[in-house]
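Narrative summary of target 7.
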Amino acid sequence: MSHSVHPYSFRLGIIRDWKSRWFRAKNYSEYLRSDVMLREWLSERLSGMFVSEIEIERSQNDLNIILKTSRPGILIGRGGEGVEKLKNEIQKFAKKFNLSSPKNFKVSVEEIRQPETHAKIVSQMVAEDLEKRMPFRRVLKHTIEKVISSRDVKGVKISLSGRLDGAEMARYEWLKRGQIPLTTLRADIDFARERAHLPYGDLGIKVWIYKGEVFTKKQEVK
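Modeled conformation, tokenized:
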């Protein structure tokens, strides 16, 4: 029988890098717990700011949290007030749950130029439209056309599940444009899950975006 595998973890070490970059022979479980809890808290804290990725880099005395967003102005704030406030909140969160926090702590914000090519941002856009009570079919078609219009995107698929448009029975609906080669390891596929919170229950959202195949330099020379 076939098994569902996350497209990101399926390609780790081939065309994808780890989102937490550090190594510890001692106290490995403590650092792993810190990263998981910090990433979950940041995802909830920064919801609505269109953050695509949260990367964590550690050294012996340094901690760098990299936030990739399509709305850097909202996150940074006037004169960097937003980043300073976020740093203070992260330090309070780390002390509250006894998380490992080095002496030198930094938050970096990177701007995403093409948000429609990032599955996490697209899923948040779909959730935002659904929470405004827009018809789900219109949301699917509008989002699909917006994403596929980008020249870097070769294929896109969006699926919704739950009580769509307030129906009594939950169901699964999806729409696809182009190709999504999930079993090809060199295929650059971005995947994300999101939830839309509605009065009659949550709707599950899944987004796949295919950006073509990634070849090594040796293969390109041939």
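The domain at 115-221 is CATH 3.30.1140.32 (Ribosomal protein S3 C-terminal domain).
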